[in-house]
UniProtKB/TrEMBL annotation:
This is ABC transporter permease. It is found in: Cell membrane. The chain crosses the membrane at residues 35-61, 214-234, 246-268, 298-318, 352-373, 393-416. Residues 210-416 form the ABC transmembrane type-1 domain. Its main location: membrane. Belongs to the binding-protein-dependent transport system permease family. CysTW subfamily. It comes from Ideonella azotifigens. InterPro entries: MetI-like, MetI-like_sf. It comes from the Bacteria. Keywords: Cell membrane, Membrane, Transmembrane, Transmembrane helix, Transport.
């Protein structure tokens, strides 16, 4: 660097204090805007946290939580921690069972323990409850029987205490965390001696239920696409006033309760309903069709309910597609039908994907419509979630099935995002 350059830099004036003050003022104003934006969105974030994220987290935790045996039988779990599960347990395990049952503060906990073990080993409910009621005989006040004596008394009370499956059920569920509910939801189970295996053939129900749920949802999605695509295309070709009036008719179902719409379909689809009467009146059929309490009625009603969710994404995408593309393709010699499928349809694929994904995700969680319009072989996974929640009071199994639905939804969304990204990169 030359001496003249150094002299010039040395002579350059320092930044004015007014400039620093202006920069600090702008920075403070920017921070205030950021804080204002955060304060406006904070209520929404808290609402989503309280009503969406926390319940989902609780569902996932409850799907792997197994507190009944761990809370009720802590001494027994410790006594069985080193048991090989092939030979009868030591007398100390019998004494631990009596001590744990005697320490339960209320009979409801014994009932919860009995129900949990009974799901693992049938007969455990009566075994646990009979032993709980016989505690005054097994452990009289002011006495401390030896473990060997307690073992003999328990075997005399119920010989099933000498059978390994009941002890294996206790040892298997002694941990507070278990994958059993999730495994059961995909027709798997843990073996008593360790490892995984499929459940018995007559108990493999959840795989078929999950497959049935996906099949019904896929059929409903395709029906909505076949009905919604032409309607959305027609709406996109109308002027704004006509399209707005007809769009109100599309949105009318949103203003009607699902139960009301399902009840209306029951009236329409019954043997003496309007559909059968009309078909018989024009001579298409000679006797009424079975449209209720089967899969046909379920698909018809779900298609009607979910059709707006397909039309709206399609319409929003189609409005952004310029009609000049079609006219240009036709003017260049392409037949109108070929131009439609080669030029117009590819540009609407984002709407097809968004509408199909939305309809499919909503369909796999449907409960009311299949429950009212379907038969025993048409119930979807949500029906069994409600069954475990309201009837069987098996929250772990209900949450595990809910976790399966949540996982399926996330996988579908991830696949959709990947397809969209790949199409954008190719474009």
């Amino acid at each position: 660097m030359s001496s003249s350059t150094v002299t010039t830099l040395a002579a350059a004036p320092a930044p004015a204090p007014e400039g620093n003050a202006l920069a600090r003022s702008l920075a403070r104003a920017q921070r205030r805007r950021h804080l204002a934006a955060i304060s406006l969105t904070l209520p929404l974030l808290l609402f989503l946290l309280a009503t969406f994220l926390v319940p989902i987290a609780a569902l996932l935790v409850r799907a792997v939580e197994n507190p009944e045996v761990a809370n009720a039988l802590p001494r027994t779990a410790q006594a069985l921690s080193k048991w090989d599960r092939h030979l009868p347990p030591a007398p100390a395990a019998y004494a631990a069972v009596v001590a744990d049952l005697a320490a339960l503060p209320e009979p409801a906990q014994a009932g919860a323990l009995a129900r949990r073990l009974n799901t693992e080993q049938p007969g455990s409910r009566s075994l646990v409850m009979s032993t709980y009621r016989a505690l005054p005989q097994l452990q009289p006040a002011g006495t401390t029987p030896t473990p060997d004596a307690l073992r003999e008394q328990m075997l005399a009370l119920d010989p099933r205490w000498g059978e390994l499956p009941y002890w294996q059920a206790i040892a298997k569920n002694a941990s507070r965390w278990t994958p059993d509910y999730l495994l059961t939801s995909v027709d798997l189970k843990r073996k008593a001696e360790g490892g995984l295996e499929r459940v018995a053939p007559d108990q493999r129900v959840f795989s078929s239920i999950l497959l049935r749920t996906f099949q019904i949802s896929a059929v409903v999605m395709l029906c909505c696409l076949l009905l919604g695509y032409p309607l959305a295309y027609w709406l996109s070709t109308l002027n704004a006033r006509q399209a707005n009036v007809l769009m109100i008719l599309v949105l009318v179902p949103f203003w009607t309760s699902i139960l009301v719409r399902v009840a209306a379909w029951i009236v329409l689809l019954q043997r003496e309903g309007l559909v059968n009467s009309a078909l018989m009146g024009v001579g298409v059929i000679q006797e009424p069709l079975a449209l209720l309490f089967n899969r046909t009625g379920v698909i018809i009603s779900m298609t009607h309910i979910l059709l707006p969710f397909m039309i709206l994404p399609l319409y929003s995408v189609m409005k952004s597609v310029s009609p000049t593309y079609l006219r240009a393709a036709v003017s260049l010699g392409s037949p109108p039908l070929a131009a439609f499928f080669r030029v117009y349809v590819p540009q609407t694929l984002p709407g097809v994907g968004a509408g199909g994904l939305l309809v499919f995700i909503l369909a796999i969680g449907y409960y009311v419509t299949p429950a009212l319009l379907g038969g025993a072989d048409d119930q979807m996974l949500s029906y069994y979630i409600a069954q475990y929640t309201n009837v069987d009071i098996n929250w772990g199994m209900a949450c595990a099935l809910g976790a399966i639905l949540l996982t399926a939804t996330l996988v579908l969304y991830a696949l959709y995002r990947r397809v969209v990204k790949s199409e954008l990169s190719l474009g």
